[in-house]
Amino acid sequence: MDGGNLRISDADREAAAQRLHTAMGEGRITLSELEERLGVVYAAKTFAELEPPLADLPGASIAPGPVTPPARKESAHLTTEVGSIKRTGDWPVPAQLRLTTSMGSIHLDLTETRVPPEMSVDVSTGMGSVTLVLPPGASADVDGVRTSWGTVSTKVPHSPTGSGPHLVVTGSAGMGTLSIRYARKGLKEWFSA
């Protein structure tokens, strides 16, 4: 996107207005020019519209800053008592994830999002269930998960494959279940395979 077409904020308008007031104080523009230019500044909606009233003043450009995406959180804790948490699609996956459920369920689909190359996942299932659906080529080390009467089921490689993210899973399955797998094939994929 062209930076000049980005919308400006009130702070950008105020910075431009301040520059015009300074220019008048320096004797660069007259009072009537100030009023005329302020009208343009306060009516501006984009950086491109903000340029003309400042164009002939030294050091007066109000340029847009770089647009940066929001930072990915380093860690997150998802918890439920008896309810369910389900995440699918493109969602921000942190490098450290803590999943806690008493009797509820947590289902996280990581197939359509950007997953960090290495993730740390700590689970506590109580009597609930945690399901992690991984993208192709992903792997998961579940040696750090303790079980009492619970179940740990994984259908992905234990060691990193080099072609997908690697999860190091720790915690406890209690009397619940932890399931790690790839996405299931739909009918269309079964018949075309």
Automatic annotation (TrEMBL):
Give residue ranges for domain DUF1707. 6-58
What's one Pfam family here? Answer: DUF1707
Q: Which domain of life is it from?
A: Bacteria
Full protein name: DUF1707 domain-containing protein
Query: What is this organism's lineage?
Result: Bacteria, Bacillati, Actinomycetota, Actinomycetes, Pseudonocardiales
